[in-house]
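Fold this complex.
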Amino acid sequence: MERHEDIALMAHLMRRAGFGADRDELERLVDQGYEETVEQLVNPTDDIPPADDLLLYRYIPATETGGPNPMPGAANWLYNMVNTHRHLEEKTTLFWHQVFATGNSKVDNDNHLTAQVQMFRKHGMGNYRDLLIRVAQNPAMIFWLDNNENHKRAPNENWGRELLELFSLGVGNYTEEDVFECARAFTGWTINAKIPRQPYHRFSWSYTFRPEEHDFGQKTFLGHTGNFDGEDIIDIILQQPACARFVTRHLYNFFVADEAQVPAWDIEPPRDPDAIDYLSKIFVDSGFELKPVLKAIFLSDFFKEAMYQKVKSPAEVVVGTLRLTGDMKGPDKRLMEMGQQTNYMGQSLHDPPSVEGWQTGRDWINSGSVVKRINFVADHVSNPDLPGVQSIVRRVAKNGAQITPDALVDRCVELIGPLEISDDTRGELLAHAEDEGPISYATDVEYAELSRRVGDMLALIAATVEYQFG
Amino acid sequence: MATRTVAGRTWHFDKIIGFLSVRGRGLWHPTSVASAPDGTMYVLNSGARPGCAITVLNMEEEFLGEFAEDEFSWPEGLALDGEGNLYCSDGHDHYVAVYTPDGERIAQWGEEGSNEGQLNSPSGLAFDSDENLLVVDSLNGRVQKFTKDGNFISSWGSPGDGEGEFNRPWGITTDSAGDVYVTDWGNDRVQKFSAEGEYLMRFGSLIDDGGQLSHPADVAVDKDGDVYVADWGNNRVQIYYPDGDIITSLNGDARGFSKWAQEFLDSNADYRAAFQRVDPTDMVELGLFQRPGGIIIDDAGHIIISDGIRCRLQVYTKDDDYLVPQFNL
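Structure:
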């Protein structure tokens, strides 16, 4: 029983700090220890490899350059999520894409969305001040929020407003005057005209500061007055208690348990105020480093007690399924299409619906998306050709030469999660298993039948309410 | 015209051929190139998306046709035999296809596996002097020799990083002596072998002398024995003495437009205006290689480099008189 609980906790950690792990890896990590695994996730050593991007570009070159739609970039990212061994680095990348939501629907240069994602991958677990400056100077973000139209004689408030509302403080913690003054401080933070995309394919924008466009005048921002530029503004933002609380609430929402939707945060208190207080203090005391906060989350009791308190995002559904079943290892001819699966479930990577990102939690589920989720998972877990499914079948058949319907349900629920299911759900699964009776697997023919029965059971589990949570 | 003079040799940038087009006149992530004695060039458009696999053109940038539309999953290598038939490998589906010069597929051979004669992701192709086809059997980490009909003759190499071992090798060529050069993509080197497969030497410096390689894609040898490597991971072409010492690098000089590109711009005022807004100092980037994936030297001495992301060919020539440049003139 203790082993089961250890496996369940490790599976919880790997679902949140990564995209899940198969049973072999879970057992290896349990042997390694929970705290050591957290340390490895937060501080991956150089010998833990990321996905091999050059291998991808050799065989599917369009994923390097992007195109007018986000399809190649989404494929690129899916490849990284499925193939990386630096799990938390990749999960944190997805986290920042949700927070600093930037969409190719406007940017129309998907290579820059990929570049932004690569920046999150490289710096997303670093220092938040450093990250905010990088975001402010990121070409995709500059174009997305019109800072290239932010001139000293005609300030554009779009970037300044979202910096305060969605990226650092939240509604209710600044005034309209602060927005305007913030925008003035970022005038001149712009991008160079780039070589056009035709006739020789896409070139990159580069960030540039144009002093002639910058407003060097005095500004008053959040009670401070001075000749501020963008970095000064970010430093003042970091001094606000609301900033640490806002960022750690985002982290709690993404890694621990579903919160209210972000626009409601000025009226809805945090789900666990003590947790936010605890994380905020660590964030401030560390000088706004992300790693100490992430480590504190995964070692906390509130995290360990939050199993299945989050509805899985489409990216978690798709990548988790691919990793569980061992599909899409390395470059794959199906990658472009597979990269669209999250889109079909309501999460178009590189193309969030707005700068607010996606509505998460139970909003991931509607009558259309739930069918797509169930079908995708069921198609994979019932495919006996996939190595991860074969591994599950081998484990189901580990002892003896026959299995009862009761044991079939229990082993499948254990090996796909371990998943916590209600008595009603278990009863329905058992009723299905009993329809076909006990299974012998002493012969090759019987083993093939066992594979089918296991696949059917896993597919049924994928259709339960419980499986939608992670 | 850009030139580079090093060690008594001078390379001149000659011309740009092609521009971005998924179908029809133009190129899409070109890799391997083959040139017929009459100057007809076949360019392999790589990438896992529907489109024309092979574009046919010439040095005057005349579009002569296209074929093998949607026929390949991951086309990786091209080679022409003495009769003008074109051989193309498919790294995904593990076979070699044979086309007439007119683009009719007349044969296909190869099956997936690791036994003698079987293939696992075939990539670079080259004919030896006996008109046998050398196939880089990439995921099996070896080179296999076949007759033109696909009958197995011999093989050498195995997966690994030692001498004579390979990690996802890609391109291949032979020199006038019959020696064989293979780009060992995953090991950041080119290995040279005798015609029988005996390991001879490597290209790709082990010290920081400018001669290193990163994921080299293809290799060619000129009539003087100088060795040219498409240094795919570093976005340049490395040129070596025959003994492996580095001579110089080419980084790409396509600062203008090909004939087709100019015609495109002539009919697109928006793009012309967009080019005029670019800072001239940033225009240098226009000429640089981005993922050079193929390199050949044709019978006329043109050094033809496929410039993958930029969807074009960059062509150089080399002065062959080897006179010491008259710097005092």
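Chain B touches chain A through 43 residues (CB under 8 Å).
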